[in-house]
Specification:
Blueprint lengths: L3 E9 L9 E7 L2 E7 L7 E9 L4 E5 L3 E5 L6 E5 L4 E5 L13 E2 L5 E7 L4 E7 L11 H7 L3 E10 L2 E5 L9 H20 L4 E5 L2 E3 L4 H9 L11 H8 L5 E7 L4 H9 L6 E7 L6 E4 L4 E5 L4 H9 L1
Parallel strand pairs: 13-14, 13-16, 16-17, 17-19
Antiparallel strand pairs: 1-4, 2-3, 2-6, 5-8, 6-7, 9-12, 10-12, 11-12, 14-15, 18-19
Helix pairs in contact: 2-3
Length: about 300
Amino acid sequence: VSDTAKVDIRIDNPGRTPTTSARGDLPIGDNHERFSIPILAAGQSRQTTMEFTAVSRAVLPIGPLSIRKGDPFGLVRHEKKLVDQINVFIHPQTVMLNTLNAGIPRDLEGQPSGEIVDDDLDFYGLREYEPGDDVRNVHWLSSAKTGTLMIRQYEATRRTDTALTISVNPDDYLSSDEFELAVSVHASIGVQCLLQNRPVTAHAGNEHAVPRNSTEFLDGCSAIIPDINDDPNLAQTTLTHTPDSSFYYITVGRLKSIDEIKHMALALPRSATCVVLQTTIGQPRAIKRYSDFTLATVGSLDDLPIIMGVLA
């Protein structure tokens, strides 16, 4: 959103005779860009470039490109389509977040986090004994060889399967801008998880996807649209597809009541962490912890890195 995109159009004359002058017509969304095409000699080509500003998040159809020829009076016209339609994905605005380390620690299916600890499952190395160390972690064979007590060290493992769910019911939002903020929050968290190679399942209405990378995920975010029939109990839909996630992020609007949010959180596994992000444009950012979930109020997209920094 707000970026400028360029469309390069190249027209070739592969024939043995010159072409006549013509007009080109390129649909870009609901608009049509028209341009003149001069006479092209045999084997000659012509290239033109158009620019447009991505005004809003969307999957924008471009084309098909049509060539129109006719007489000067407009009595006769011949139109030919040269290329098929393509889609351009206009991604939502996102912000960079700090590393997200939350998840279920000491999990056999977890991934190494880079943090060195004294007790976990993934063996890292040895160090000399320090007062206060647990003697159960002494590596006796190495201690006997070196004559110094040696302590095992481990690399902390965390299982961080993440379920990202966004409410697409317009009744949950005060305005379309608040809905777009929710999409940006949803997208920003997903991108950060994928950059850390954390498995992600994204839920938006009837769409449930397991993106392989951040670009694929953002392409899906471009296609998110409001749906008045979206199930208000987001946890039920999420658990149908991701019952064993270690982390649940649920993004909703300000009109989602706290009772509805509590009801959703109760359905999620107790072993998992649940964060509900509620978009409320113009309101101060806030974090409130409940027994089953954490509720974060996001007044603007710039609030998100601060909020996630506190929760990480």
